[in-house]
Design brief:
Length: about 220
């Protein structure tokens, strides 16, 4: 699915992903009263009707995202198993390897970075810890290797889960929540070191002046 939708950046645009599978996304409020009533009886969160995924806009944004990917799970997996589609949604929105490389320390980090509800983030983080333990003991699975290869960036020479245009040059990319690209970051570091050196020289000069003026008093 990540290849099919050219996904290479988190958090996901869940609406766009559903669209790429040929389905429209609409709100429950766009349904006629009888269809709305029928949808709510089936699920308070989301439903598929024909070529459209309808969602309950009265739910939180984070929950809507999860619900959209859950419904996509029914489409991609061709399954009516709700638990299986929940797992699909969780692993699509917050792949365990992406949780690892984004250095999430707890469920709160997962919720913030991947835009999940607290409940979904707790489940994802618990499953991530199981995944990490299995990788430590048994090594990466074939699926893990495919995931790593997909998100590996040749320019950054590492697993990249997020990138944006550099805040300074607006040309190159800053990776994994950095605000500056590597070139601008090195430039800023050099400026900082130079400023610290000048500050140190000024302090030494002030000390020399003080000794010269007051040293003999």
């Amino acid at each position: 699915m990540f290849n099919h939708c050219s996904i290479n950046n988190f958090p996901l645009d869940c609406w766009n992903i559903v669209n790429q599978y040929g389905f429209k996304v609409k709100k429950y409020s766009e349904l006629k009263p009888k269809k709305l009533e029928a949808c709510l009886e089936l699920s308070e969160d989301a439903n598929i009707i024909g070529d459209t995924v309808y969602y309950n806009e009265n739910k939180s944004h984070n929950r809507v995202r999860f619900s959209l990917m859950h419904e996509l799970g029914h489409i991609v997996l061709e399954s009516n198993d709700e638990s299986e589609c929940d797992k699909f949604s969780s692993n699509t929105i917050a792949p365990r390897m992406a949780i690892h490389y984004s250095k999430c320390r707890n469920a709160n980090d997962v919720a913030k970075i991947f835009i999940l509800s607290d409940q979904a983030a707790n489940i994802a983080f618990d499953d991530y810890r199981r995944w990490r333990r299995n990788v430590t003991i048994y090594g990466m699975s074939d699926l893990d290797k495919q995931m790593y290869e997909h998100f590996y960036n040749d320019d950054a020479k590492k697993f990249v889960w997020s990138f944006e245009r550099c805040d300074f040059c607006f040309t190159d990319y800053a990776y994994n929540e950095q605000s500056l690209c590597e070139t601008c970051r090195r430039f800023e570091i050099r400026k900082l070191i130079k400023a610290q050196r000048i500050d140190g020289q000024e302090r030494n000069l002030d000390l020399s002046r003080s000794n010269w003026l007051y040293g003999q008093l």
